[in-house]
Every structure is written in structure tokens, then in C-alpha cells.
């Protein structure tokens, strides 16, 4: 089974769909968001992804008044959430900018009003963050849009994934294996789960969302059959903000996309054959013919 997002078909032997997650790494700055969109386009990514919250709904009660040190001074966690949130006019600007750069764009809505917000902007798909996989009210709202849905599965059990897919259905869903530690250590990657999900949910395309340092694990995921790869991106991992340290800088994203395409070419079709490039070495080196 395949899922179509924008002009891209995911699964069915098509090239891996590369999602550059900007998330909140724009730090509430439209111009920084545009620079990150440029990074994604230059690297050859297929899509950029943001996060959309209604802070008074999506911020857990116990976190709201926790003080946070920010570049704008000390503020509560709830105030910080408002400070980095884009409103409609800003999303129109960055959404148009991404579209003109040839990229799909969408976001992870963290609450039901954010689904309506994104639908009003006519996004091509929706992304469910791992933290939202158990929010059945949100999943129902996303299902009712009829749009393709990318579902990350970090911090989740198989039973919770079963329940989420019971709400969403499987016709327009792409699953992403993920481990929600930032940054993630290799011992927690558990990449064999990609095959586990593929076997359990036959026909549902399965990809990978990574929070590790470096490229090796994401590239291994593609070699294991991941049909989509999502990685956070930043201009500089040393920037202020919670996700920058687990993000790829511009050169890293360029290398990731380049190496994914090399791996896809190298995987071949599984049919054993003698390639033209082997004929000269065979004539030179093989003493006994067939």
C-alpha cells in the first residue's frame, strides 16, 4: 500500500520521503524559519514540518507555571509556549515560502483547535507527535479531515499503537518508528521494530523518526526498509532551545539525503546477476569457466 502526500508517493518502492522537522527550532522567528526551509530545499528534502499548539490547552497543568530561562528573560513555561508560537499570518508566510521552494509543509497539531487551524491553511497532511499518540480526541479530529496522517510511535506500546490505528484506520497512515529520547543513544534505537511494525500492520508504510546524533542510525533505517525519514534540523546545534542538540545542521542534512539516495540505488532488486562491470574482471581472473 502507498500513501500520497503532495506530489510524493510513500511506500511501494518509491524513494524515501525525507521530512526536515523545523519544529520549534525557529524560536518564534519567521526569518529563521525561512532560513531553515532554504536548508531543507537545498539538501533535497521532500517536506518541512512544524508544530502547532494552543498553549492553554496543550501545556500540561503541572508545567504551566514552571519558570524557564529564555533569550527573552525568565518566564513561565506557558508564557514561553506563547512566545514561540506562530499565528495564522506567520504560517501563511512560511507555508507559501515552503511551497515556492518545492517542499510539502505540514505540522504536528497538539490539540483539536490546532487541527482546525491547520485545515484552514490547507496543509497536505498531518503529523501526530509521539506524545499525542494516546490522545484519542485529537486522533478522531485528524481522521475526520480525510488527510494523510504520519504517526510517530515513540514512548508507545504496541497496544497503544493498535488503539491509535483503531481510531485512524490504516488507509492513509504512515507509521514512523521512533524512540523519544533527546538525543537518543544507539542502544535505544531498536531499529528491528521497523520490521515488527511492517509485519504487524501489513500494507501500512513504515518509516523512521530519529533524534540521534549523526547519520548512521537513520541510514541503517533506510537499509532496513524505512520508506520515510524524519530528522530535526537547525542552523547550529549550539543555539538556544530544547531540540537543537538532537538536530542536524545544514551539512548534516545534505549528507543524509545524499547517502539515503546512494543506499536506495545500492539495494537493487534482489535478483542475482552478472553486471557489465564484472565482465572484464571475470575474463581476467576466472580460470575455470561455467
From TrEMBL:
InterPro entries the UniProt entry points to: Aldolase_TIM, PseI-like, PseI/NeuA/B-like_N
GO biological process, one term: carbohydrate biosynthetic process
Pfam (any one): NeuB
Signal peptide start-end: none
Residues covered by the PseI/NeuA/B-like domain: 36-272
GO molecular function: N-acylneuraminate-9-phosphate synthase activity
Protein name, UniProt field: N-acetylneuraminate synthase
Originating organism: Microbacterium mangrovi
Amino acid at each position: 500500500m502507498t500513501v500520497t502526500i503532495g506530489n510524493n508517493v510513500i511506500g511501494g518502492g518509491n524513494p524515501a520521503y525525507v521530512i526536515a522537522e523545523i519544529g520549534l527550532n525557529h524560536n518564534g522567528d519567521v526569518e529563521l524559519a525561512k532560513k531553515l526551509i532554504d536548508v531543507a530545499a537545498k539538501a533535497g528534502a521532500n517536506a518541512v514540518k512544524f508544530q502547532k499548539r494552543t498553549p492553554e490547552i496543550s501545556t500540561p497543568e503541572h508545567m504551566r507555571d514552571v519558570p524557564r530561562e529564555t533569550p527573552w528573560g525568565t518566564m513561565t513555561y506557558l508564557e514561553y509556549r506563547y512566545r514561540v508560537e506562530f499565528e495564522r499570518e506567520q504560517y501563511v508566510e512560511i507555508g507559501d515560502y515552503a511551497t515556492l521552494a518545492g517542499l510539502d509543509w505540514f505540522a504536528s497539531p497538539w490539540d483539536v483547535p490546532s487541527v482546525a487551524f491547520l485545515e484552514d491553511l490547507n496543509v497536505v497532511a498531518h503529523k501526530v507527535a509521539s506524545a499525542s499518540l494516546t490522545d484519542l480526541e485529537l486522533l478522531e479530529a485528524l481522521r475526520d479531515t480525510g488527510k494523510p496522517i504520519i504517526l510517530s510511535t515513540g514512548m508507545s506500546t504496541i497496544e497503544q499503537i493498535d488503539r491509535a490505528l483503531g481510531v485512524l484506520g490504516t488507509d492513509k497512515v504512515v507509521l514512523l518508528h521512533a524512540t523519544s529520547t533527546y538525543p537518543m543513544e544507539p542502544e535505544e534505537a531498536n531499529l528491528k521494530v521497523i520490521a515488527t511494525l511492517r509485519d504487524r500492520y501489513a500494507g501500512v508504510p513504515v518509516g523512521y523518526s530519529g533524534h540521534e546524533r549523526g547519520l548512521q542510525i537513520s541510514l541503517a533505517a533506510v537499509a532496513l526498509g524505512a520508506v520515510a525519514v524524519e530528522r530535526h534540523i537547525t542552523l547550529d546545534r549550539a543555539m538556544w532551545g530544547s531540540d537543537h542538540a538532537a538536530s542536524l545542521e545544514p551539512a548534516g542534512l545534505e549528507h543524509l539525503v545524499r547517502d539515503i539516495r546512494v543506499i536506495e540505488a545500492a539495494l537493487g532488486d534482489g535478483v542475482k546477476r552478472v553486471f557489465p562491470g564484472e565482465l572484464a574482471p571475470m575474463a581476467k581472473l576466472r580460470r575455470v569457466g561455467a
